[in-house]
């Protein structure tokens, strides 16, 4: 199962789209509760690095061996590397566009406003907010679902005949998330996201060590790296895998993360991105290589399931795998928090009074009620749809690919207007064309997989569909 998915935000009310090229003043915090409270701008560049790492390096990296089974060694390495290079380049360009607007007196703190201002179109405002909030809500649902499954895994090992079901554990996670959701600002999550960074390194290397142990043991599973015999099936699987990798690299909240930096933000995001992609290099490649090396085309949707098969003994020491599961569980709470910030910002922009204190009764009570309802909404859908991870490829194709592989290139070309004969212009244009095609094919192949798996879907099931 995967952690990048989408649903519509429950409590959002449409807000007026900004007029094209409207000047957004640096003191908008004096007018806007969403900016003044949730997107408080006090952070350092390393805080942005913590946020970026939590947004990108999550337990979904443990599904990279599963993505490789649809691509094989050569194409798998190629796609993983290309996705990494293109996303770093894409986020770098978006940061340059944000810096350019800030120098011109228009510091954008929201993706939707940046797109509407640069592209000069009101409909782009609504397109971005729909895609962004759908992705972020989906990830919040997926984080609760996966955290509940982590608890279920630990419970089933401690009490194999226990009566608790998956939705009981989802309810427990939801209760914890309601409490954590009351951190008032994005910036206040910086210490949590530092711990999240360390947790991602921890469970990655625990799993890598477990895979090496499993692959060199006497009971090592037979290795088969062959692809499907049917050419059409190989093509569909390849595009589904590409969409999964795109979703794993996806980060639909970069402008909001840059908004947490104390102004001027110029240049700080590049340092934060460099920190994040250093972690990505060590975690993504090690998880992909070790898992696919051991399990080949039998790799499960998340490599922990391959190491802990339903039948037979675990292929690695149980304490090691148990600690990895705990690390994953804890990081999922941080991921759910960070991807909820856009929804909280939208809600507080409408509900909070910027002229009163952030902890005043006037602002505190609506915050507690609205955020609790939002988390309950996510928890309910996580319990109702335990096959949610199966749409991860669709999310990557129709959500993350437009936001992370197409729009940043378009925003840069519109802002800096590079010559049509320049290398950068053609690189940007080529990326947009290639990933538009990949997104369309990925959406088709991922939807096809959903249809094929539909017979296994059951509402409020205690088993997650791979």
Choose one word for the global shape.
globular
- Uncertain segments of ≥5 residues (pLDDT<50)? 1-30
Helix-strand sequence: HHHHHHHHHHHHHHHHH
How far from one another are the termini? 5 Å
- Tell me about the largest β-sheet: none
Q: How many helices in DSSP terms?
A: 17
How helix-rich are the residues, as a percent range? 55-70%
- Class per helix and strand makeup: mainly alpha
Mean pLDDT: 85
Range of strand content:
under 5%
Q: How many E strands?
A: 0
Give me the Rg, rounded: 22 Å
Task: Summarize this entry quickly.
By secondary structure, this protein is mainly alpha-helical.
Fold and architecture overview:
By secondary structure, the chain is mainly alpha-helical. Helix content is 67%, strand content 0%. The chain has 17 helices and no strands. α8 (190-216) packs antiparallel against α13. The longest helix has 37 residues, at 122-158. The relative contact order is 0.21. Mean pLDDT is 85; it is low at 1-30.
Tell me the layout of helices and strands:
Elements: H1 33-38, H2 45-56, H3 64-68, H4 72-103, H5 111-119, H6 122-158, H7 166-180, H8 190-216, H9 231-249, H10 254-259, H11 268-295, H12 303-307, H13 318-338, H14 341-351, H15 361-384, H16 392-416, H17 423-453
Helix pairs in contact: 2-8, 2-11, 4-9, 4-11, 4-16, 5-6, 6-7, 6-13, 6-15, 6-16, 7-15, 8-11, 8-13, 9-16, 9-17, 14-15, 16-17
């Amino acid at each position: 199962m995967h952690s990048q998915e989408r649903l519509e935000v429950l409590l959002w009310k449409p807000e007026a789209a900004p007029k094209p090229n409207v000047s957004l003043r640096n003191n908008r915090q004096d007018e806007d509760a969403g900016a003044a409270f949730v997107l408080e701008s006090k952070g350092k560049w390393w805080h942005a690095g913590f946020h970026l790492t939590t947004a990108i390096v999550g337990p979904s990296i443990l599904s990279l061996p599963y993505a490789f089974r649809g691509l094989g060694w050569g194409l798998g390495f190629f796609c993983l590397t290309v996705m990494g290079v293109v996303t770093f380049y894409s986020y770098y360009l978006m940061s340059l566009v944000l810096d350019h607007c800030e120098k011109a007196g228009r510091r954008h703190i929201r993706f939707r406003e940046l797109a509407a201002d640069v592209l000069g179109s009101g409909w782009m405002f609504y397109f971005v907010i729909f895609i962004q909030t759908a992705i972020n809500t989906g990830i919040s649902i997926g984080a609760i679902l996966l955290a509940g499954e982590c608890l279920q895994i630990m419970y089933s090992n401690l009490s194999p005949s226990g009566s608790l079901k998956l939705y009981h554990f989802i309810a427990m996670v939801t209760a914890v998330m309601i409490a954590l959701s009351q951190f008032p600002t994005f910036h206040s999550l910086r210490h949590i996201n530092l711990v999240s960074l360390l947790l991602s390194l921890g469970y990655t290397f625990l799993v890598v060590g477990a895979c090496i142990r499993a692959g060199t043991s006497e009971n090592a599973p037979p290795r088969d790296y062959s692809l499907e015999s049917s050419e059409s099936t190989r093509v569909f699987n390849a595009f589904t895998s590409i969409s999964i990798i795109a979703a794993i690299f996806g980060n639909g909240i970069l402008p909001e993360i840059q908004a947490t930096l104390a102004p001027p933000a110029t240049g700080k995001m590049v340092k934060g991105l460099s920190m994040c992609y250093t972690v990505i290099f060590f975690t993504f490649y090690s998880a992909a290589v070790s898992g696919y090396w051991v399990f080949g085309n039998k790799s499960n949707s998340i490599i922990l399931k391959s190491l802990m098969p339903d039948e037979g003994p675990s292929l690695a020491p149980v304490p090691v795998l148990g600690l990895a599961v705990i690390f994953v569980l804890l990081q999922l709470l941080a991921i759910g928090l960070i991807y909820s910030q856009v929804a909280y910002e939208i809600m507080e922009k409408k509900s909070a009074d910027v002229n009163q204190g952030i902890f005043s009764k006037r602002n505190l009570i609506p915050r507690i009620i609205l955020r609790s309802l939002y988390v309950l909404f996510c928890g309910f859908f996580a319990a109702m749809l335990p096959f949610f991870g199966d749409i991860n490829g669709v999310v990557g194709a129709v959500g993350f690919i437009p936001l992370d592989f197409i729009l940043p290139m378009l925003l840069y070309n519109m802002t800096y207007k590079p010559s049509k004969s320049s290398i950068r212009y053609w690189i940007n244009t080529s990326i947009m064309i290639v990933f538009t095609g990949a997104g369309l094919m990925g959406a088709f192949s991922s939807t096809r997989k959903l249809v094929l798996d539909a017979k296994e879907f059951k509402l409020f099931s205690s088993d997650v569909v791979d």
